[in-house]
Amino acid sequence: MNPHREAVVEPLDLLRKTAFTFPAIDNHAHPLLRSQFRHQVPLESIISEAPSGPSLIQDAAQTIACFRAAAQLSKVFTSSGEGGSEVSESPSLWQQVKQRREAMDYEELCDIFMKPCGIQALLLDDGLGGVSEWCEDWKWHRRFGCDTKRIVRIEDEAQRLLLPFLQPLLTLAGSEVQNQLQPILVEFFRRLQVNLSESAKDPEVVAFKSIICYRGGLNVRPRAELGVATAPNEQHDYAKVTESLFRAIVDFQSTGMLRLAHGEINEWIVHWGLRVAGEFDIPVQFHTGLGDSDIPLVHASPAYMQPLIKEYPKTTFVLLHAAYPFTKEAGYLCSVYPNVMLDFGEIFPMVSGSGQRVAIQQVLELCPTNKILWSTDGHWHPESFFLGTIQARQALFDVLSEIVSRGELMETEAARIVEQALFWNSKRVYKLDVEY
């Protein structure tokens, strides 16, 4: 053996090492369930947005995404000594995974899936329905060795602030309610501005988020059309939003639950959030594309947001979930507007491996590589964070290695793109004090 022989360098070794080991910032996720509520949400929720029922429990388990997830999770249980390595035909591998996790201590389950992810910072939206009742506090997640920050949902803050104003109106007749709407709106929006301003100044808060996509769609109208003042010396035209609030109160009276999904008032709330975000230079994440059955899919494309993006040039927009299946439209917006960024989470593990690669290819068609942000959109179960991490890393490597092999990109450039997508872009956009 020649002692002076040079070590063999594997093809694309730099890109492979970077893709699979470079530290990451998860720029959008949700808290984990507490141990006593570990059964509150079906495990299938990590692979499907379908509501609980046959579409979730039966159909989701028959997707290629689920078959792949089951195989990847099974390997973790086997390597950790939980269960045997043999795969049987009955029950299915997915059912075997569920049985193995059921037999584990919950904290150990969280550790074996969270700690290998290499997440340096975790940005958590704690406004998801059920989080306050069933989930750990966002600060609890620091136990996995990552810095954890908070994302504030604009609509949740608005509902919380509006509720005390509306409760005294529940027993009144319609005409009595309408007489009180304008003064309520004036004070409500004043408090909303104060509340969002305080959140923006909180060092633990790094972003706002809007779910207007779930509350009517992304086709938010301009301020002038809605009656929202466009200059400091102008007055708001509350007449355009009182009917919207009245409809919300009528629903509140009949259901006992306040859910703002009534056109103009939701649009006003978004405008308020964007204005405060621009003033304090804090990004606003928008749910786009992929979502559950409440999403009006026809209005889930970020293409509808173009007028809104132009109206707030000082506000940073982060389009979540690769806007799937409207990924090309999102990439276009990033290419022409300096204040638009593109997250490519949630497609892991909800979309098949081939679909993930296509989505990333579409992201890279037009989107500048300094605007791509990775996330898991992890929620409820630790497995969602694990799958969101390993599948994203694999997809990045697969797509970029193919581009390098065609001679369209140097390997060093491809490795830099991975570093930016996993770490550097989020560090810059959210002004994070975290090192790798």
Domain tally: 1
Written as H for each helix and E for each strand, in order along the chain, the element string is HEHHHHEHEHHHEHHHEHEHEHHEHH
The CATH fourth-level homologous superfamily = Metal-dependent hydrolases
Largest sheet: 8 strands, parallel
Strand order of the largest sheet: 1-2-3-4-5-6-7-8
The Cα radius of gyration reads 23 Å
Summarize the structure.
Helix content is 48%, strand content 9%.
Describe the overall structure:
This protein has 436 residues and is an alpha/beta fold. It has one domain (105-429): Metal-dependent hydrolases (TIM Barrel, Alpha-Beta Barrel), CATH 3.20.20.140. 48% of the residues lie in helices and 9% in strands. It has 18 helices and 8 strands. The chain has helices at 13-21, 54-59, 64-79, 93-102, 106-114, 131-134, 154-166, 174-178, 181-201, 223-226, 239-255, 264-280, 306-311, 327-336, 347-350, 353-366, 382-405, 411-429, and strands spanning 24-29, 119-125, 147-153, 205-210, 284-286, 317-319, 340-343, 372-373. An 8-stranded parallel beta sheet has the order 1-2-3-4-5-6-7-8. Strand 5, helix 13 (306-311) and strand 6 form a beta-alpha-beta unit. Helix 1 packs antiparallel against helix 17, helix 1 (13-21) packs parallel to helix 18 and helix 5 runs parallel beside helix 17 (382-405). The radius of gyration is 23 Å and the shape is globular. The model has no long low-confidence stretch (mean pLDDT 91).
